[in-house]
Amino acid sequence: MYHARGGAHRLARSLVSGGVFTSIELAGDALGVRARAVRFADELRGEVEAIRDAVAAAAPKRVLAAEWLDPVYCGGHWMPEMISLAGGVDPFGTPHEPSHPLTWETIAAADPDVIVLMPCGFHAPEVVARYREVSHAPQFRALRAVRQRNVFAVDATSFYSRPGPRLVEGARTLARILHPTRIAGSAAPCSVFKLEHDGHFAPWPSTAVG
């Protein structure tokens, strides 16, 4: 993402309020292809509005987006906005602010409906392999989302960890996880796994949140 001009880094931190799209246009200016950049940014804005419209009437779900597993970090920067766009509520993170560690008491008090594991820099199969880093904790196993098997491992590297165009697809995937009957299509292969009743993860969507 374009960082050469003052403020561009800050703009890149925001998805829903348009910062990512403005950064694309700034990059187009710098590269002499502004018209192409504006068209692309406008397409992405349209996709964001389509996601928002699709879940507008759905009851919001409380979401823990775990950007690290041991200790558990909440989602930061653009993640709270992405959760809101996808029809969720983030009780832990603050838009445009860094992620930070959470206590088990804080997590238990919110008792999220859905937990999305997205440790920064890892693809979904790698997240599944790291699940024991958090699942060993009895406080984690006591959470509603874990007991109801509404725990998902996602491809953080491709769709959540970096402020670029693929955040839009990440938001669409979150919306499918939270409200699967309202978003058409399916996630990219091997980009989402869901915790099953036998305690193992399976590629999703083979099952869905109700």
Descriptors:
210 residues; alpha/beta; Rossmann fold; 2 domains; six-stranded mixed beta sheet; two-stranded antiparallel sheet; 11 helices; 13% strand; disordered N terminus
How is the main sheet built?
6 strands, mixed
Uncertain spans: 1-12
- State the distance separating the first and last CA atoms: 37 Å
Strands side by side in the biggest sheet: 4-1-5-6-7-8
Whole-angstrom Rg = 17 Å
What percent strand? 5-15%
The coarse overall form would be: globular
Class of the largest domain, according to the CATH hierarchy? Alpha Beta
Mind telling me the CATH superfamily name of the largest domain?
Nitrogenase molybdenum iron protein domain
Mean pLDDT: 89
State the share of residues found in helices, binned by percent: 40-55%
Work out the number of β strands.
Answer: 8
Q: Topology as H/E string? A: HHHEEEHEHEHHHHEHHEE
Q: The CATH topology of the largest domain, please?
A: Rossmann fold
> Which architecture of the largest domain would the CATH scheme give at its second level?
3-Layer(aba) Sandwich
